[in-house]
Amino acid sequence: MKKSSNNTKSKIVSAAWQLFYEQGFDSTSVDEIVRVSGTSKGSFYHYFDSKDSLIGSLAYLFDEKYTELEKTLDYSKNAVDNMIYLTRELCMMIENTIDIELLSRLYAQQLSKRGEKELLDRSRMYYRLLKKLVLLGQERGDITRKKSSAEIVRLYAIAERALLYDWCLHGGEYSLTEYSATVMPLFLSGLRE
Questions:
Q1: Which residues are registered as beta bridge partners of 192?
Q2: CATH architecture, range 1-50
Q3: Share of the chain above pLDDT 90, in %
């Protein structure tokens, strides 16, 4: 039953973000989201209070991308190189499929929100995959053991959020994918053993 409910929620989230990208947040209605997702209005309101509450679901859309990317990782490679690959692929996805205004809204919402903040939810695939890579890297000597795996994951997440936040502040005037290919290796070089 849980798999089915997660699938329904995932369909709603995917359809919403596709429509937001194609026609904008303000021009997208709940009825259109329900139609494109092949779900019902009841299902929509079971998971979301309103269209605005979908903004936080962007974090889980990112997790779907990480789930896809995990299957493509080469675990024989250096863990830091795999982390750089994840960042590049996520940035490419964001640049090509997420409206910058919506990403900016996500950050604004997370800053003003009380209670659960989706970007910080440690049960997300994002954090689980990063922890897996960091632990493997520490075990193999790819990543420093001078910091705990939790601290390294936290530092990585901070650096990645800073990169995305800066891109939003600049209105997407530079290529997020290209800039991440320069910035993240510099940052992550400090984590190599």
A1: 143
A2: Orthogonal Bundle (1.10)
A3: 67
Neighbours of 85 (CB within 10 A): 16
Q: What is the pTM of this model?
A: 0.85
List the structure tokens of 24.
Answer: 């904008």
pLDDT per position as a tens digit, 106-117: 888 888 877 678
Out of 2.40.40.20, 1.10.357.10, 3.30.70.3550, 3.40.50.1370, select the CATH number for domain 52-189.
Answer: 1.10.357.10
